[in-house]
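Convert to structure. Protein one:
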Amino acid sequence: RSQIRQIRMNAQMTQHVLADYLGVSVKTVEAWERGRTHPTGPACRLLSLLSNNQTQVLPFISVE
């Protein structure tokens, strides 16, 4: 599994929810997970927060 997919799964998000959260398309998330492209800028920082289980600092996340 890719690191981004693992982060997404740990955060209990679908690709669609993660894409909305990061402000990117589902196709972009798919490309990241397959290693074809890599996140940069704000998306990279938000993924870092998710990977460190720091969603409590991001109260606007809704994964339901």
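Protein two, convert as well:
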Amino acid sequence: MPIVNNKKWSFRLLQTKDRKRPDGRFPVAIVLNLNGRKIITQDDLTALPSEWNKDTERFVEKSKQRSSILIANNIYLDSLSTKINSIIADHRERRVFLSNEMLVEKMNFKTQSATVEGYTNNYIKNLYEIKKIGRAKVLEAMLTYFKQFDKKFSERVFQEITYSYIVSFVQFQADITRKGGARKKGGISVHLRALRRILNEAITDGVGSPETYPFSTKYSLNQKVYSIVTELKTKTRKRYIPDVMLREFLNYKFKSKAHQRSQAIFFLSFFGGGINFADMAKLKKTDLLTGYNTCGECFQYIIFYRSKTNEPIEVVLNPDIRNQIDFLTNNYETVEDYLLPIVTTPSLDAEALYNHIAEKRKKLNKYLKKMAEIMNFPETFVKHISTYYARHSFAMKMLSKTDNIYLVSQSLHHKDIDTTMIYLEDYKADQIAAETSNLLN
């Protein structure tokens, strides 16, 4: 009779979509519950659901074609079971603490599916399937940077991603002597946050390592913590355009149709609460709706899902927003059901659409820099202006007009006020500078 211990560990068939093999089989795994939860996949052992008995946690040996294989697999599982129980019994007898990671080390498990890269690639594949292309590409870039840092990264398992490992990675990325030069803190931060998401997801799935999690003490109080916010904090002036220049920009008569279109897209984002360029690009004519307020007055609004958070956003079309939409729809052609003349190629799949919009953003940012030069704006705007200036400019203007940071936060659709405070740091600094000038006069 097989030795089974469901209290501290078990064998299980991983019947999830991402684990399914082309032949319809799923891998067998050892599920450890000694300290937290961990799943070690046995990649060489696979079974159809009909070939697995979840009660006995063994292969069903009735298949004629695979009978000898299934019997051999069960013998192997019996030997693993005996070895695991022996290690656990030994530690209990000696009253020595035994964690999942210690047991894994003693069993000498180290399979590809338990690697950070293997798990991340599965996660990326799922993101592409649900059309989260941006997130998938960030994770792909993250893997590239870690492979540059660590030639053996493809072999790394989750328990090897420790506080010290992260510190070494950041030091490597920030080294001015490295090939390509030092990376900016903001870029390093983006990819550490992506890694943090993967580590959290892996722990939730039972394949991660809570004992060595490096970004907080929520899994282990004894673990050193690497704070991304503290260690990689940067201080730069936020990207916004002052009122006087905004008015000049809005009223400037550009000769080029491409510049006129760029002007309207920029101010549609500005008047619309800083709508992200990709979200504007994906707006459909069917997103333009009609409603009635409590006074019975008719108004138009748009509803879209913010790409960054997947949160549904409603924007009421005030006259300023309406003017930009009317100008764009009356003077430029659109394709398919798109509301705005940003997407210009029909019938694109999710990844092709993502790349198409990214190229359109690059072109728009190039136009904006040229337009700043035409208007004789200061050099900093000629060099750096981009679509993102619309969102920050909206935030600064809303605060100066309302003096209500909570209203600004709601307008930007931030989850918490702290994020809004970061946006508005320069507003506070400018206020302090103005109020402290000539204090004795």
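The mean pLDDT is 87. The beta strands are 9-13, 26-32, 38-47, 52-53, 58-59, 288-292, 298-305, 312-316.
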